[in-house]
Amino acid sequence: MCGSSNRQRQMALMVRRRFNLSPIGPIWFPQSFSFYNVEANGPLHNRLMINPGYICSEYFGEGHPGGEIINKIRHEDLQKLSFESKSLDLVLSSDVLEHVPAPYDAHMEVFRVLKPGGRHIFTAPFNPLTIEDDVRAVIENGEVKYLAEKLYHSDPVRPSEGVLVWTIFGVEMIRKLETLGFKVRAWNLYEPESGIVGNCNTIFEAEKPA
């Protein structure tokens, strides 16, 4: 995948394997397959956008209703998605959930919009050596309260500002997702023949039971 990161290649390989797609070439789903990517840029997005059932979005901040089109891009807030319940076969998010103030509200929304048997394939900063999530900031009384030194990641929507990291996840994330109703699996992929080398991101699959 030209120009892709190791993480994006891991995501692409997992999608191909979980849905029995060709290991090379276009990533093509049946016309009836409806899926949502929580970003509207990058090499994986470019591969997926050929599909008629593909939906993508960015987050443009408070004050925009879900589904609004801004500069030709759909706006969505993961904490309150505008999709109908049980309407999507697949949700993809790659290092997004750490930037959501209430990430488990977002997971609940993903569970709601997935069809029975649907999957959320995602990556997020994850420390398997810690039990509890490292919550670095919270919202209290409408204001951001920082619990640790401010940490920002680059943001394609606001490149000059970056985007705040609210949470780095620990093992408790898996338990919380199972409490929400998901069946959770995790992989660390290292496959040089598929261009997956170097640091291995943990790829999570949260499946909504059929």
From TrEMBL:
Organism classification: Bacteria, Pseudomonadati, Pseudomonadota, Gammaproteobacteria, Lysobacterales
Protein name: Methyltransferase type 11 domain-containing protein
Organism: Dyella nitratireducens
Pfam families: Methyltransf_11
Residue ranges of domain Methyltransferase type in the record: 72-122
Coiled-coil ranges from the UniProt annotation: none
